[in-house]
Design a protein that fits this description.
heterodimer, A: about 400 residues, mainly beta, Immunoglobulin-like, 2 domains, 3-stranded mixed beta sheet, 3 helices, 26 strands, globular, B: Immunoglobulin-like, about 10% helix
Chain lengths: ~400, ~375
């Protein structure tokens, strides 16, 4: 069985990395506490926080609201809202991790959390899988909701899914945690751990200055709306950016962006997960250069199906193995200029990766050629190159 | 404040232009424990940045410091970069006033942009935001006191004086009078350069003395500098190429390397990787950057400065962004050593995008530089051998 995980995106900051880490503290006072509408005291509550936002190629990588204030004894339920791959994970104070641990990008040097990729036990050194500590919930199937009492314990949603990976099984689309100890607790999306953080502030059980769900929802909506406005602006600006320069022998060199997280917004959580411009027309002999600063591929697949980035391989016991497909990860250029009968791919390009963040391909046959990001295809990250005769 | 020196500084990111109202700053872990004797007000020092030459670390060291109410903290520039120490104090800068989203805060938290349009200029005319570039403390005024609210900013600090004889703006002091926990950031790199001051009551005994603060700072710096060394070794080893048209070759060069194999945004290698490459006539070099750099071939010195101050009849100068640095230039289809070829700024919010390409057909060895970081040593060569 070879079935694609319905995980849409990756980004694994920590894709091939090593390092350090730890999160630490946070200051929140400004947000949750100031949210006004108070909830009646002394009642068990379950408050919902959204994970990600947006739709299709426009994605907001954040928790909404970013900070929530609850009472001791309350439960928080995270619900997947965006279409990227996300987790909600409490990692602070945990020192023992499995293979594939990586530095927390803004943590103290030496602070680690589970990275995106991990070696496959018993496999060759280059064989990688989606890190099981990222992919699967810490809560055992059928177990009761976990209780979080503070740093030192790993509590994680696993990879959220909007649709079930396995027919008949419910999707892992929510994650609940009960908080029994006052304090302020940071959590992170392990997939986007250089930018996607949230906080839960737990007030004493009798506190009255905590928001009710309506106030939490209002705050979430306001924060999401602010970020979506940035994304819409970036989309419009990116589409308008068609840039070329003279190349050798009367040709042109065209510059395209593979993804655009922040053009003119400055916020790397505001993601346009698309090719910009989406459709580009060039002349035979021209070269297209793609650049990115997140994790994407530029891939021309001659015949469907497209290779899956993350495969699902059932195991005799326990959870499936989730190998990362080398055909997606590594570059392929079977000839010096594009040939529609063969597979051409940048491999995964971006920061933190050995290949760097750029790729180039020259075209000499007239026609219109579709290409795709194999990491974000399900979001609609596709483009075309139309080649006119010279 | 003068300016010619600005470009010598690492002006990193126009990218992240902003910062925020602070809420969500990730800070470091357990506070140090060595106690300072309870006593009168103290002045403790925090380092801004680390590293030297092309190996730099973006950070405040230590990232978190605990002091008593009444104490003063002095920040001191510790590398050749440019940074600010900025407390937003719950303030928000409206978009029309140059506010941009804080990259680590909730949607709607706006901080000052680093670069703003020039008043009365054309659509491409930009300048450093005066609200960021200049201190909130008036010349000659006493050290400011921070009580947890209001905007307090060091202005852009640099280790070296931009003008001979003038003192460098390399320190910033602030007195804290109210217990609380206060995040701050550098508006040059608000997505990664953040710190926290924790202020405890005046009588508290569990605060570190300067020796303990220094020890923690040194440990944090050493750990991140080790990552830069790893990145350097790995980056220089990479000379990647692929076939190009007509029997030519595409060569891929990184312009800067913040994170390769470290996974951390704070260490940054301000180099071209590989620094020196040898190609054949007809080949094309493609540069990629994920932070703010240029690849620039300048036939005749001096290299243009990124920031050009324009004196005003009154008040501080306008710190204009030099279009000769920021804007791409390709006067001919293949490289000509007698002319100026420039990628312009490459990076996250640069309209030019992340990549640039240049084809070479004349044999020779050609030097180039990042015009943002040339003074730190960010230079490389392309050697072209006959086909």
């Amino acid at each position: 069985m070879r079935r694609a995980l319905h995980l849409f995106a990756m980004s694994g900051l920590t894709f091939l990395s090593l390092g350090l880490l730890t999160w630490v503290a946070l200051q929140i006072d400004t947000l949750g506490a100031s949210t006004a509408s108070a909830a009646p005291a002394n009642q068990a509550r379950n408050l919902t926080v959204l994970v990600g936002g947006g739709q299709d190629t426009l994605q907001a990588l954040n928790f909404f609201p970013m900070s929530v204030r609850v009472r001791q004894g309350n439960t928080v339920t995270w619900r997947i809202e965006g279409d990227e791959l996300h987790t909600a994970s409490f990692v602070k104070g945990v020192t023992e991790w499995g293979p594939g641990a990586a530095q927390i990008p803004l943590g103290a040097p030496g602070e680690m959390n589970p990275g995106f990729a991990a070696p496959i036990p018993g496999g060759p050194p280059e064989a990688l899988q989606l890190n099981p500590q990222l992919a699967f919930p810490t809560r055992a199937p059928g177990a009761s909701v976990e209780t979080y009492s503070g740093p030192g314990r790993f509590v994680s949603s696993g990879a959220f899914e909007k649709e079930a990976t396995f027919p008949g099984a419910p999707p892992n689309n929510t994650f609940s945690v009960m908080f029994d100890t006052p304090g302020t607790y940071m959590y992170v999306c392990l997939v986007h751990n250089d930018r996607m953080y949230g906080w839960v502030e737990v007030a004493p059980a009798n506190a009255t200055d905590v928001p009710n769900q309506a106030a939490i929802d209002a705050q979430a909506s306001a924060e999401l709306a602010q970020m979506m406005a940035l994304i819409q602006t970036a989309r419009a600006q990116g589409d308008a950016t068609v840039r070329s320069e003279p190349g050798p022998n009367g040709t042109s060199i065209w510059f395209a962006r593979a993804g655009n997280q922040e053009l003119h917004s400055g916020d790397s959580r505001a993601q346009v997960i698309d090719f910009l411009p989406k459709n580009l027309t060039v002349t035979a002999g021209d070269t297209v250069v793609w650049g990115t600063n997140y994790f994407h591929t530029v891939s021309f697949v001659p015949a469907p199906p497209n290779p899956e980035f993350i495969e699902v391989v059932p195991q005799p016991a326990g959870p499936p193995l989730l190998p990362l497909n080398p055909t997606v990860i590594f570059p392929a250029k079977p000839s010096a200029t594009y040939d529609p009968t063969q597979y051409f791919s940048s491999g995964i390009i971006g920061p933190f990766l050995p290949p760097g963040n750029s790729w180039a391909l020259a075209f000499d046959r007239p026609g219109t050629y579709e290409y795709v990001c194999l990491v974000h295809e399900l979001l609609g990250m596709k483009g075309t190159i139309t080649v006119l005769p010279r | 404040m003068t300016l010619t020196g600005f470009s010598r500084l690492a002006f990193l990111t126009m990218a992240t232009t902003a910062v925020l109202g602070l809420m969500a700053l990730a800070v470091y872990g357990p506070l140090d424990t060595t106690s300072a004797a309870a006593q009168g007000p103290r002045n403790v020092t925090v380092m801004v940045g680390a590293g030297q030459d092309t190996a730099v670390v973006f950070g405040f060291f230590p990232a978190t410091v605990r002091v008593r109410a009444g104490d003063t903290v002095t920040w001191r520039m510790n590398n050749d970069d440019l940074h600010t120490v900025t407390f937003m104090g719950g303030t928000r800068v409206e978009p029309q006033a140059g506010g941009v989203q804080d990259p680590l805060g909730p949607g709607g938290n706006l901080i000052p942009a680093l670069v703003v349009p020039q008043p009365g200029g054309g659509p491409q005319d930009a300048m450093l935001n005066p609200q960021v570039a200049f201190p909130t403390r008036a010349p000659g005024a006493p050290v400011e006191t921070y009580s947890g609210s209001g905007y307090v900013n060091s202005g852009i600090m640099e280790k070296v004086s931009p003008e001979p004889g003038a003192p460098p703006h390399d320190t910033f002091s602030l007195t804290f009078d109210t217990p609380g926990t206060y995040p701050y950031l550098s508006i040059i790199l608000p997505d990664r350069m953040i710190g926290t001051i924790e202020v405890v009551p005046a009588g508290a005994v569990d605060v570190p003395d300067q020796a303990a603060i220094d020890a923690k700072a040194n440990a944090e710096m050493a750990a991140l500098l080790a990552l830069v060394d790893v990145a350097k070794g790995q980056g220089q080893a990479l000379a990647r190429s692929e076939p190009g048209p007509g029997g030519s070759t595409f060569w891929f060069v990184r312009a800067g390397n913040s994170d390769f194999h470290s996974g951390d945004l704070r260490p940054h290698l301000m180099e071209f990787l590989p620094k020196d490459i040898t190609i054949r006539a007809g080949d094309t070099v493609i540069w990629g950057s994920t932070l703010f750099h240029t690849a620039s071939f300048v036939p005749t010195p001096p290299l243009p400065e990124l920031v050009v101050p324009v004196p005003q009849p009154a008040g501080p100068p306008l710190l204009t962004i030099n279009p000769l640095v920021a804007t791409p230039a390709k006067p001919s289809a293949v490289f000509d050593p007698t002319q100026n070829f420039n990628s312009g700024l490459l990076g996250p919010i640069a309209p030019g995008g992340f990549s640039w390409a240049l084809t070479f057909d004349r044999p020779g060895t050609f030097e180039y530089a990042c015009l943002v970081h040339a003074q730190m040593g960010m230079k490389g060569t392309i050697t072209v051998v006959p086909r």
